[in-house]
Amino acid sequence: MAAELYESVNVKQDPELRDALMANKINEVTCTGCEFSFRVDKTLLYSDPDHRLLVYLYPAAPGQYREGEDQFGEFMRNMLKMMPDDVQPPDVHLAFNRIEMVEIIFMVDAGLDPRLIEYIKYQIYSRNSVKIDPRQKILLFNAEDSDEDNLCFVVQDEESRRFESVIHYPRETYRGIEEMFGTEEGAVELLELFPGPYVSARALLREDSDLPPGTSRPD
Fold first, then answer.
1. What is the pLDDT of residues 8-60, one digit of tens each?
2. 3 with 41: CB under 8 angstroms?
3. Does 101 lie in the same domain as 42?
4. Does 57 lie in the same domain as 7?
5. Rounded-to-integer distance, Cα 206 and Cα 184, Å
6. Pairing relation of β-strands 137-142 and 28-30?
């Protein structure tokens, strides 16, 4: 059984690969004997030159995030060495599963800042911690049902994979947050909240659950 496995995807050169990625068909293998299909989870670099976007996928469980960040750091150092000094580096993101990668792509395609979207998720989780427990619930940006008035988020139960509810977030509030963090001081504050290469409100709050009582990360 032979299959073509991708290590990188450039959607400007091969636009059809973007659709394959969104349909979960990238690195899919089908047995010629029984026709059983499965996906090979491996590192994958997504490149969209038109949006100056790179997403580095390192499939990993939470306990392997440090290893993924180390490999991502090595990738970044090698990439910057190869880039000419007069070329502005792309916006690079780290994802630990395919859903995170696809979500980042949707955000950028919609003209949104993924770091600001994660800040909004952080606020939603924090203000609804009983109903939307980050240890059990996944909060996903829904580009398809977002419109000019509201951004749409869906709540998914991690264990059952069922979608449980929908949250609409005013775009006007997003624009206010964008303006707030557009200042030099605001940018520093956002980096203090999400200091590493992996930007995830859920991962941050799950880490907070291990902090000593009475301590928390900044709002």
1. 999 999 999 999 999 888 888 877 777 777 788 899 999 999 999 999 999 99
2. no
3. yes
4. yes
5. 28
6. unpaired
Looking at the structure, do residues 22 and 85 belong to the same domain, yes or no? yes
Q: Which residues are within 8 A (CB) of 25 and not within 5 positions of it... i.e. 6 or more apart?
A: none
| 97 plus 136 within the same structural domain | no
pTM: 0.86
The Cα–Cα gap between 181 and 175 comes to: 10
Residue 15 lies in a domain: yes
Average pLDDT over residues 209-217: 45
**HSE of 210 in the Cβ direction (CA atoms, 13 Å)?**
5
Residue 3 makes CB contacts below 8 A (sequence gap 6+) with 27, 28, 29, 30, 40
Antiparallel, parallel or unpaired: β 8-10 and 44-48? parallel
Based on the structure, what is the number of domains in the chain? 2
Model confidence pLDDT, tens digit, residues 160-198: 999 999 999 999 999 999 999 999 999 999 999 998 889
Q: How deeply is 107 buried, as exposed, middle or buried, from its count of CB atoms within 10 A (0-12, 13-18, 19+)?
A: buried
Indicate whether 66 and 149 sit together in one domain: no
Amino acid at 171: R
